[in-house]
Amino acid sequence: MGAALCDIGGCGVQAIGRCNSCANAFCASHQGYKGSGINVVALVNRCAPCVANAAIQRRSQVEAVDPEHVKAEFEAALRRLIEAGSPGLTPRVVVIGRRKTRFKGWVDITEERRPGWSLGLRNWRVTYSESGDKDAGMGGLSVTKTKHVAVETFLVPTGEIEANFAPGMDGFPHGAKATIDATNMESFLARHLSVLADRLLGPSTGTGGGRSRD
Fold first, then answer.
1. Beta-sheet pairing, 161-163 with 31-34
2. Whole-model pTM above 0.70?
3. Would 134 disulfide with which of 127, 139, 177, 213, CB 3.0-4.6 Å?
4. Would you call 170 exposed, middle or buried from its count of C-beta atoms within 10 A (0-12, 13-18, 19+)?
């Protein structure tokens, strides 16, 4: 068997380990760490998204959700990352279809998406239309259906959330629309981005809406 490749965000470079939590292979760029500053320790069996998610869950258990605080925390963390040159962004290339060539047979049609910070697998609601069941007397009618799926999700530097979703290649008809489940999303984003900024840049000590640490 060939060497494993990084599964995080479709990275695809040489993997150095496999996460005990999600079973995804990860490379050095997507390896999990604990601690901060000079006390950072690389984790041999945890990927960065799972470490960030675990930290977010721990904080959510002890912090009350204040909408204004959440918004300020998110904006401060995003500003820190952008001002530092947006470190940790994951390149994104999504397969949107296939075509048959004369010499290579079937090849993937890919589309470059804006690079972003991985949010891991998040729940998205996909809405699509298909022909009705003829046996149920609905032949020829268009029926709207909804399905919830877990999709690799990213936050781009403009603050928008995007999924690596391509209807024609993900089992849905062309024209399907994906909407993220927004339940607790604001709180999740603020905590996730703060943890990411602290890991990449060190703990925040400023004011201006960001978190400070003693």
1. unpaired
2. no
3. 139
4. middle
Task: Please say whether the beta carbons of 124 and 149 come within 8 A.
Answer: yes
CA distance 154 to 56: 16
Contact call for residues 106 and 98 (beta carbons, < 8 A): yes
Q: Quick one: which H or E segment has residue 80?
A: helix 67-83
Query: pLDDT tens digits for 111-145?
Result: 888 899 988 888 888 888 876 555 555 555 678 88
156/208 Cα distance (integer angstroms): 22
Q: How far is CA 4 from CA 13, 27, 49, in A?
A: 9, 9, 18
User: DSSP per residue over 182-213, as a string?
Assistant: -TTHHHHHHHHHHHHHHHHH------TTS---
Tell me the pLDDT tens digit for each residue of 136-172. 555 556 788 888 888 888 999 988 888 888 877 677 8
User: Domain residues of the chain, as ranges?
Assistant: 90-183
